[in-house]
Amino acid sequence: MNTIQRFILSIVQGITELLPVSSSAHLILAGKAINFDISTNTTLLAILHIGTTLAIILFFRKELFKDLFTKDKLFFYFKLLLATLPTAVIGFLFEDYIANFLRGNIIMAVSLIVVGILFILAENIKLPSSEVSPEDVPLGKMMVVGTGQILSLIPGVSRSGVTILTGMSVGLDKYSAFNLSFILGIPLLIGANLYLVAKGLLLANGASLENVSLPLIETLLIVAITFTIGYVALILVKRFKRSKWLTTFGIYRILIGILILILSI
To answer: Which of 147, 168, 212, 236 has the most Cβ atoms closer than 10 angstroms to its Cβ?
Structure first.
């Protein structure tokens, strides 16, 4: 794999990880376009996610670190970790099954289309909702949203997309669901990154050093690209909070899903 291919994947990751359009689906598609299977390079996957994870932490720094070490903040952290456990456990136990049976083009396309339709319905059907800060979301509702992340293990679903939908289903307005979605993803993203690095090191041997490390400068550039693009993406979505941005992303997902179906026939 060459440097240009890595930077293409970095741009794709930065744009799609923090938008509800499924970064895994776009990385798989981009990998196929440049003739590289991204799923085989666990270290690169971890590096790609480091930048976007840092973007989330910086963007939500006030929600995460204000009144640090208070009783309420510590309970908030506990709720985040508890709500992350179901997806972490399922992802670990069924990793091989997901990789072998759920990464087909048809499944990915159907996931994109179905969630896209749900986006449009969720934004245009009037349901009772309220604006709630992530810290004030009750444990029960946070568990529902956290458990919903399990569906994001299927390429095409989108972790942020499904958590926004589940957040809205338990009575949060879409902006509150947006905030909770990304903050709730931080423990999962950090844990997944550490796991991918450890897995790359354990599986590495003398013939696969590319899967263990990248040149330092190149690694820093990849992180910088994904961080910068991801942070801008978060700003843009937040500014669109009063408009029909879920419908816009829903239409985009449906079109991409249809395109994948056509190309797969």
So the answer is: 168
Look at residues 6, 31, 4, 26 and name the one whose alpha carbon lies nearest to residue 15: 26
Alpha-carbon distance of 55 to 230, in angstroms, equals 6
Can you tell me which residue has the tokens 């060459």? 2
Q: Which residue range is the domain that position 213 belongs to? A: 3-264
Tell me what the pLDDT averaged over the chain comes to: 87
Count of CB atoms within 10 A of residue 139's CB? 14
**pLDDT reported for residue 203:** 60
The mean pLDDT value for 146-158 works out to 93
> Crossing angle, helix 3-16 and helix 23-33, to 10 degrees?
160
Q: What type of residue sits at position 211?
A: N
For 45-79, how does the pLDDT look when each residue is reduced to its tens digit (9 = 90+)?
888 999 999 999 999 999 999 888 899 999 999 99
pLDDT at 241: 58
Contact 14, 233 (CB under 8 A): yes
Q: Rounded to the nearest 5 degrees, what angle is found at the Cα of 244, between the Cα atoms of 133 and 83?
A: 35
Exposed / middle / buried, residue 232 (Cβ in 10 Å: 0-12, 13-18, 19+): middle
